[in-house]
Amino acid sequence: MTTATAAGVGTVRLLPQTRALRALHTVMRDRHAGRDEFVTSSGRVIRQLIETALDLLPFEPREVCTPVGRTYRGLRMTPHICGVSVLRAGDSMESELRAIAPGVRIGKILIQRDKVTKLPHLYYAALPADIDRRHVLLLDPMLATGGTALAAIEVLLGQGVEEDAIVFVTLLSSPEGIKAVHERHPRVRIVTSAVEERLNENAYMIPGIGDFGDRYFGTDVVR
């Protein structure tokens, strides 16, 4: 697994840039890709991201007896985890987390960015009552300006979650967004499948993927 430095601050856990991953990105980034192709390809990448994020959480020793009667000294991941999805696009990541950890608790945060000011506004939050005692996978496919991520992190910190107990899981990241998060919260870890070139004048990532939520849920405008 690759650890990359972005914009001179903080570190990011970047998925290995394999040919298989590039092939999945090629489908997702194609403006002509059908919704089935987009959902399937993004789901495969999200599964890799979540597996990588879980590997960053604490493990404890566990011994088991194998079918041939020998002892295997292995590990068991901490049960004190939860997912928190940033609505609406973050919902796309929940199914992959539940497939890996079926009993995991999942909270919701609704933050929307004003299309004119680009500033985030918190509308809704529903979180596990004991979230302050858990490690949190914060789920949002896009890290662009960092405004939404920062607002979501502040909600978690306000509920008593420790900064280093937060792993931000995101499909695409911009250097500007990574810098914004790590300058404010340097102990928050970020797991991503790609670091984009930059943001354009409208705060869209280049080369980008379009509006992930619209494409995933089929609410994008047909052209």
Structure description:
It is a single chain. With 223 residues, the chain is α/β, with parallel strands linked by helices. It has a single domain (2-217), classed as Rossmann fold, CATH 3.40.50.2020. 31% of the residues lie in helices and 33% in strands. It is built from six helices and 13 strands. It has helices spanning 19-29, 35-54, 91-100, 147-158, 175-184, 212-217, and strands spanning 2-6, 9-14, 59-65, 71-77, 81-87, 105-113, 120-126, 135-139, 142-143, 166-173, 189-195, 198-199, 205-206. Strands 1, 2, 5, 6, 7, 8, 9, 10 and 11 form a nine-stranded mixed sheet that branches. Strand 10, helix 5 (175-184) and strand 11 (189-195) form a beta-alpha-beta unit. The model is unreliable at 5-9 (pLDDT under 50).
